Amino acid sequence: MSNHLASVDLNANEINSALPKSPNQKSGNCDVSMQSTDLCDNCIKKTSLNHNSHSQSIKPSCPIFNKKMVDTRAFPGDVVRNDVGFEADAQTTVTWYFEDEIIVEDNRNSILKSKETCSLIIKDVCEDDDGEYSCEIVNSKGEDECSLELIVYGAL
């Protein structure tokens, strides 16, 4: 599983501890580099500081899901909608899979995508739709994936 940057709050004391000390410097710019398995492999953010407390939030660079799919149950003939939400600061490609095969839009499968959400809509669910669905988001900074199990009642 890859590591992703979600959000980091830094204050001036944390930034100052990473900088060389200059007795008269009360403001300026610095690069903050962090490495943490909880956040991301390596992220760098420019931030400004002054002698007062300063907080800076760092937005995700690699795509990350903020709303994942949940396992779903359906009856034959139902319409199923699987929604995901994600954060990314670069153009993101979204790909849906059924049992590791790319889902192609057709008269039963529709994909709706906006800047931060994507939905897979399956019309007229049948027993053959029973199985694992996954969604992959990819941009130049990284990737993330989530999945769900669709259980169709009556499927063997």
From TrEMBL:
Keywords: Immunoglobulin domain. It comes from Dreissena polymorpha (Zebra mussel). Residues 61-149 form the Ig-like domain. This is Ig-like domain-containing protein. SUPFAM superfamilies: Immunoglobulin (SSF48726). Gene3D superfamilies: Immunoglobulins. The lineage of its organism: Eukaryota, Metazoa, Spiralia, Lophotrochozoa, Mollusca. It comes from the Eukaryota.
